[in-house]
Amino acid sequence: MFCYQCEQTDRTNADSGCATAKGMCGKDATTSDLQDVLIHAVKGIAQYTKRARALNVPDNAADEFVLYAMFTTLTNVNFNATRFVTLIQEAAQIRDRVKASYLAAAQAAGITPEELDGAAAWQPAADMEGMLKQAADVGINADLDKVGADIIGLRSLVLYGLKGVCAYAHHAYVLGGESASIYAGIEEALDFLSTDPTDVDALLNQAMALGTINLEVMALLDKVNNGTFGAQQPTQVRTTPIKGKAILVSGHDLGDLAALLEQTKDTGINIYTHGEMLPAHAYPKLKAYPHLAGNYGGAWQDQQKEFAEFPGAILMTSNCIIEPQAQYRQRIFTAGPVGWPGVRHVSDKNFAPLIQAAQALPGFKEDGAEKFVTVGFGHEAVLGVADKVIDAVKTGAIKHFFLVGGCDGAASGRNYYTEFAEQAPQDTVVMTLGCAKYRFNQHEFGDIGGIPRLLDLGQCNDSYSAIKIATALAGAFECGVNELPLSLVVSWFEQKAAAVLLTLLSLGIRNIRLGPTLPAFLTPNLVQVLVDKFGLLPITTAEADIEASLTRKAA
Amino acid sequence: MIFVVKNHTYPPLSCRTLSRVSGNIFFRVKTHMNTHAIELTTRDGEQFHFDCPAEQNLLEAAASAHIVLPAQCGQGNCGTCYAEVTEGDFTLGKHNPSALPTADSAKGGVLLCCTFANSDLRIALPFDHDRVLLGEIQVRNADIIAIDSVGENTLRLELHLEPNEDSGSAAEFEPGQFMELEVPGQDIKRAYSLSNISNWDGRLEFLIRLQPDGLFSTWLKEQAAVGQTLVVHGPKGAFGLAENGLRPRWFVAGGTGLAPMLSMLRRMAEFQEPHPARLYFGANRAEELFCQAELQALQAELPQLQVIYCVWKPDDQWQGFSGTPVDALAQDLADATVMPDIYLCGPPKLIDAAEAAARAKGVPDRQVMSERFLPA
Fold this sequence. Notes:
The structure holds 2 protein chains of 2 kinds. By secondary structure, chain A is an alpha/beta fold. Chain A is built from 19 helices and 16 strands. Chain A has helices spanning 29-54, 60-72, 81-109, 128-138, 144-147, 149-174, 180-194, 200-229, 254-264, 284-287, 303-309, 352-360, 379-384, 386-394, 415-423, 463-476, 495-506, 524-534, 542-551; strands at 235-238, 246-250, 270-273, 292-295, 313-316, 332-335, 344-346, 372-375, 400-406, 428-433, 447-448, 451-452, 454-458, 486-491, 513-515, 537-538. In chain B, helix 6 (325-335) packs parallel to helix 7.
């Protein structure tokens, strides 16, 4: 295996990347290699869907498969090698279907169809052993010797960003959000990658194009989230347990949570959110269920301890799963793109087995002492009081905004984000999103004239809110986003964050502080490009970075 | 019977051999020449102790002693398992320098996953004791709900776990695992493989071969009755399904070695796993075969499952395979185009013969997983 797609990739050697029998995320070489093969197969689909779409025979079902397949290859999503064998076989079948419809459409239009090679003409081996042999030719660094680390790094930036785009688009899709232009953009990017591109500018342009597509995806996701469940409202969420039977729901899929809430109403089972599911409490149609009882635990990397101690059943609806421990392996269920060998999977939103487990398990023996956090500051809530916020800036009550958010992770360097948020001066507002918030969301931030100093915008899936708020403020102050008293301090871990980063860069947003470390796939040359072009800044210390942000030293 | 697991997919039982002697369980702790005593002290002052062989890293040695410390990558990269050695001599292996800054290592900072003891050690953990998971074996009461004769000298024992505060009514275990049953009134435990799968009603099912003069057998025959309560310890054991793509799975069972195979096949049925599957189930005489109805029901749920009954000393009426399951296995391996994963459970002669047959036909050792009953 070779994989360096996430922040915790192996950096013990000079050449960073997980290249042994098991990656840092717990993925074994077999699964990782099969994921490389699946991505290759998916490129083959896109080579044809792109051309079929141009002839007015788009195959949205094939595009939906692409979203799902790409989502399964994110860092902490699917670890089930067997699942990838079947997905690879399915991908080849779908590719052949799209190819047939493309050929037919070309013939009908009197056009000579293009003869495609590479992934478009590739055939998966009959069994896993054969597929693993094929992996050597299709991994991200397969032609490193030929093209060099910079080109491999740029292809990685495009591929990993694209994985994030697909994951977000899949989140939108499961709530009924689809768009031809998004599918076309994803097809274009995969088709581009299938050519094994070597031109630096073309690769950078594709990365920026993906950032633009991702903005569209995030807007669509925002629309379907709010359309399905109502716009987020500021809401107090209990963070301590209530006596009784319990189910814990983690991941990002609000649709799965909604289905489970409906199936458990009047059962006496309390539903708790975990990790990125916390913002669910802010949506009117979800919080209307009285048994959506509270939030349990912290960010994803603490799950092995927290799940082991949770006295009920657990549902993992999307990233980030880590190896289920023996103590809860029987009582954790996966859904959607998630998978772990030997763990029960619910593919049809029929959560009866999960509910049965929760009823058999003991539940919480007693109430915890009441404790709350406040969530729900999506763009509608924040911009609903825009006048107040703008006044506070004009009077000098609010001197600066920080967006401190993104992914959390285990690395000790991530304390930076705790320190940053907690040390931000009292006349500044901290906006946050993603699971990085768990590093500081229990801290008492207070308020500025009634405006809370900590505004939780939602999941990483809600990054659109941050962009919308920044754009609206820029409009109010008649300046560009880069001229606002706003600093972005981004914590990345995996590929969804890569997609959001590309969006921010494609919007021309400069001086983003990125940490806790820079992606291993960005070579020194590529980092220099990002620094020169976008003013991208590696984090230093919280104190120095706050100081620099406030004095705009880095601007 | 001694119970030895090979090619398990769980962390290796590296400093102990799990043994099952004629139903008696004991842990044989190998005496290491170079085993060091480790003392862990948490931030809030709790202490944990375990022995660490020189060749094993501290994190794994702690886990072997059921002390599960916070850790993630296990490869010296993420820094999650940071701790400080306050006394003793150690070797720190290859790790990511950014996960262990020089300033930290200067004060005894280590990453437990890549640290090896050269002497007894005292270690300070930078977190409270509630961060430490203690993987303790559960001990529960279970009521007998059925004792059925399923074949000559073979009983099916079904227990129902009494719900308790910590586990509710759940019976949580991996297919292929076993439990130890205490003989009532005697300080003796016997280990038996579970033949059903993890469930939420608290049901445990065992297939038990009655041994002449066996302690548990005698108790089962003479005293056991529906409604009685047993104390059960477990689940335990690392025999179980390996994930190797869609590679065919062939199960070879002798006698009550069928139990873990039934459990694994039932799990495959529950998950609707598509792997081609075969069960070679052998007995000396046709009358000794059992669970045919259960296997037939399983085939209805798992249509790809082929069951090959093998009788070593058949009578004239026998129409199935004549010979041992190993004979049948060897014959089919000769024709196999893809080398299957092979799961073996039964008496040692059967397992040794099956392993030899598999090796002779070119099945890689890593694809052969076994659990053997050894007469004490």
